[in-house]
């Protein structure tokens, strides 16, 4: 009987291993299909453009559709003169950015429009400008109070009247706004509300109906429209109820705006909002002025030291944001920055609203240099001259990273987006997103972005946003393109088998290993019983961590969680592909830095640094300054550090 069971078990193992192999081949084929499809689309687009250039009066349906849209880029509408006048008189801007005019003309024609433009691309103008030249007011739905405040501040600065309603509005404010909604001589052209107002306040909805009857509800703008869909990265349940607006007021044009939405996500949004056949105006995700960089984080304290040094030197006197994982980190990191005389303040969801507003205002007026924030300081924060956005911890998805880092350089001048990538952070975030739909998958895409050694950071974003990308277009504005590392394909099958052996041994001892304990055991450290589990690897800690992460992304390892009332514990287990490694002919490979590849460069750099240091000491003696020694070192380091995009001011 036992023998029979053993046979069945053996066959089951072999069938499962074969299935895994087929799955692997399938995933490779799917990847190839994706690459080929995007190449085909690119070529088709080129062909179509060439045909159109040759035949300007072509009557094919796609080109006539494009011509229709091109018509909305023009200035021969009855409102065109007013649009130009308000652009300069009300908003003090000289020209439109790409696709703004098209979106404005479409919404002024009464069409329902979805606008997809990069963060900082200038989406707000697409509804703010039509608002000032239309009778009545535009209702703007935004997900966050901080976002409303920011918009109101900017509108106040240019003298466009606007109002807002949210949970913290006083009774008096509520009363005056509700009265203003049905008053033809009302003092506001834009009314900002949170989605809760629409979902939960009957009084507000009845007032909206009255405004509509009096022809005063001129337009509905839904900012951050991706929040409607639970497939997006920032789903808000109250956004799901916004469909009521278009059902109640079908003749009022709706404009939805977002920086991150795929076609399928927008389809979902249009269903939720009850918008039939919206026209989508979308431009490339690419922000050419942003420099993307990933730095390895060996420990939190090292990262903080590095961040302090960057802010004091490279970004001396310049405005920026440091994003952190938790409220505790916000307090801790800002305290560390303050210790170094940097005016940094924390910002997180648990602060009282007045404190949040105060930090936001003081930062906007450059009285605070750095906001150390959780993602609560997010969407819609619009300060033009943010020169750096540093992530002390990785974001939970690439969409989130794109949006958070997109706070930088909104004035189109160069700005840096640096993310510190730490091994243990991956698992901190993993336990946070475990309950989310596809949370793990999205986190893995972010990890892949950080792990990549040889793919342009922009190209990874492009494939994420379904865009065809040519690496040349990066213009060396990412660390991979600017400082290519010598790396090659390395077979890590032996490493993978050693890790599997550790996990199997631990499991036979009824032990579960956290990622940290797994790496420690592999490095021959930690408790004695763990050290005996397998061969000790000769890899460095960072390479060992990188191998573990790659195996996790590729499915040879997987995450396992256990919940307590207070916390979520995280362990590593054998992944679905692990059985493939039982077959000795199966191999796994990853890109790794070529050992010694950067050696000569590093040596040259060190010699150069020592030379500069000696020179400094010499000059110091000559001018007899009392500045502490390490400050000079920081200064030299910041100036000659090879990733710098903007030379330090001092
Ligand atoms: N035509 C223009 N010319 C110059 N500056 C502009 C123009 N349009 C918008 N801007 C500026 O660009 C900045 C970003 O605009 P906005 O806040 O509308 O971005 P956004 O697309 O909504 O970004 P996010 O996705 O982060 O909300 C603002 O400071 C705005 O004043
Ligand atoms: Mg915006
Ligand atoms: Zn690049």
Automatic annotation (TrEMBL):
Give residue ranges for domain Helicase C-terminal: 303-454
Record keywords: RNA-binding included?
no
The subcellular localization recorded is: Nucleus
Cofactor(s) the protein needs = Mg(2+); Zn(2+); Mn(2+)
Keywords, A to Z, come to:
Acetylation, ATP-binding, Coiled coil, DNA-binding, Helicase, Hydrolase, Isomerase, Membrane, Metal-binding, Nucleotide-binding, Nucleus, Phosphoprotein, Transmembrane, Transmembrane helix, Zinc
What are the TM regions of this chain, as residue ranges? 598-617
**Could you give one GO CC term from the UniProt record?**
chromosome
Any single Pfam family the record assigns to this protein: RecQ_Zn_bind
Give all residue intervals belonging to the Helicase ATP-binding domain.
Answer: 104-279
What is this enzyme's EC?
5.6.2.4
Recorded GO molecular functions are: 3'-5' DNA helicase activity; ATP binding; DNA binding; four-way junction helicase activity; hydrolase activity; metal ion binding
User: What is one GO biological process annotated to this record?
Assistant: double-strand break repair via homologous recombination
Superkingdom of the source species: Eukaryota
Kindly give the InterPro entries that the UniProt entry links to this protein.
Answer: DEAD/DEAH_box_helicase_dom, DNA_helicase_ATP-dep_RecQ, Helicase_ATP-bd, Helicase_C-like, P-loop_NTPase, RecQ_Zn-bd, RQC_domain, WH-like_DNA-bd_sf
Q: Coiled coil where?
A: 5-32
Q: Which family does it belong to?
A: Belongs to the helicase family. RecQ subfamily.
| Protein name from the UniProt record | ATP-dependent DNA helicase
């Amino acid at each position: 009987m036992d023998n029979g069971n053993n046979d069945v078990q053996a066959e089951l193992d072999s069938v499962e291993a074969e299935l895994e192999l087929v799955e692997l081949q399938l995933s490779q084929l799917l990847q190839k299909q994706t690459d080929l499809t995007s190449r085909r689309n690119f070529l088709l687009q080129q062909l179509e453009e060439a045909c159109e250039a040759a035949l300007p009066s072509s009557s094919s349906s796609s080109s006539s559709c494009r011509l229709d849209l091109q018509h909305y880029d023009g200035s021969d509408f009855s409102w065109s003169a007013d649009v130009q006048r308000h652009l300069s008189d009300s908003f003090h801007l000289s020209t439109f950015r790409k696709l703004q005019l098209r979106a404005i003309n479409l919404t002024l024609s009464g069409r329902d429009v979805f606008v997809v433009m990069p963060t900082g691309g200038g989406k707000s103008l697409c509804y703010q400008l039509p608002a000032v030249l239309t009778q009545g007011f535009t209702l703007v739905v935004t997900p966050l109070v901080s976002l409303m405040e920011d918009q109101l501040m900017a509108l106040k600065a240019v003298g466009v009247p606007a109002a807002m309603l949210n949970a913290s509005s006083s009774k008096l404010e509520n009363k005056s706004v509700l009265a203003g909604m049905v008053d033809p001589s009302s003092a506001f052209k834009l009314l900002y509300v949170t989605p809760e107002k629409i979902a939960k306040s009957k009084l507000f909805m009845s007032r909206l109906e009255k405004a509509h009857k009096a022809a005063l509800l001129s337009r509905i703008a839904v900012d951050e429209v991706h929040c409607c869909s639970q497939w997006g990265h920032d789903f808000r349940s109250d956004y799901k109820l916004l469909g009521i607006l278009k059902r109640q007021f079908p003749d009022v044009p709706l404009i939805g705006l977002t920086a991150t939405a795929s076609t399928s996500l927008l389809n979902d949004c249009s269903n939720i909002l009850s918008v039939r056949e919206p026209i989508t105006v979308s431009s490339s995700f690419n922000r050419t002025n942003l420099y993307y960089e990933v730095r390895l984080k060996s420990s939190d304290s090292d990262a903080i030291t590095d961040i302090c040094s960057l802010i004091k030197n490279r970004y001396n006197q310049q405005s920026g944001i440091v994003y952190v994982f938790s409220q505790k980190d916000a307090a801790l990191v800002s305290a560390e920055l303050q210790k170094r005389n940097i005016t940094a303040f924390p910002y997180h969801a648990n602060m009282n609203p007045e404190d949040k507003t105060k930090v936001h205002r003081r930062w906007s007026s450059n009285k605070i240099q750095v906001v150390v924030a959780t993602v609560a300081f997010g969407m819609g924060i619009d300060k033009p001259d943010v020169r750096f956005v540093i992530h002390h911890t990785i974001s939970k998805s690439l969409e989130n990273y794109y949006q958070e880092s997109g706070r930088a350089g909104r004035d189109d001048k160069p700005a840096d987006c640096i993310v510190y990538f730490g091994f243990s952070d991956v698992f901190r975030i993993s336990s946070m997103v475990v309950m989310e739909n596809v949370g793990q998958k999205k986190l893995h895409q972010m990890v892949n972005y950080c792990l990549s050694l040889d793919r342009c950071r922009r190209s990874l974003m492009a494939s994420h946003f379904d865009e065809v990308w040519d690496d040349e277009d990066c213009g060396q504005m990412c660390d991979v393109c600017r400082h290519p590392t010598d790396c090659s394909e390395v077979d890590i099958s032996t490493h993978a088998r050693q890790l599997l052996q550790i996990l199997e041994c631990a499991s036979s001892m009824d032990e579960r290993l956290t990622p940290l304990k797994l790496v420690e055991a592999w490095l021959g450290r930690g408790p004695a019983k763990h050290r005996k589990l397998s061969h000790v690897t000769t890899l460095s800690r960072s390479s060992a961590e990188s191998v573990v992460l790659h195996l996790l992304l590729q499915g040879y390892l997987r995450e396992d969680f256990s919940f307590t009332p207070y916390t979520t514990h995280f362990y590593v287990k054998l992944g679905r592909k692990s059985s493939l490694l039982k077959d000795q002919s199966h191999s796994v490979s990853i890109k790794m830095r070529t050992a010694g590849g950067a050696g000569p460069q590093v040596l040259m750099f060190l010699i150069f640094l020592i030379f500069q240091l000696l020179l400094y000491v010499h000059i110091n003696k000559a001018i007899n300054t009392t500045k502490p020694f390490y400050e000079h070192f920081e200064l030299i380091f910041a100036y000659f550090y090879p990733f710098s995009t903007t030379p330090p001011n001092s």
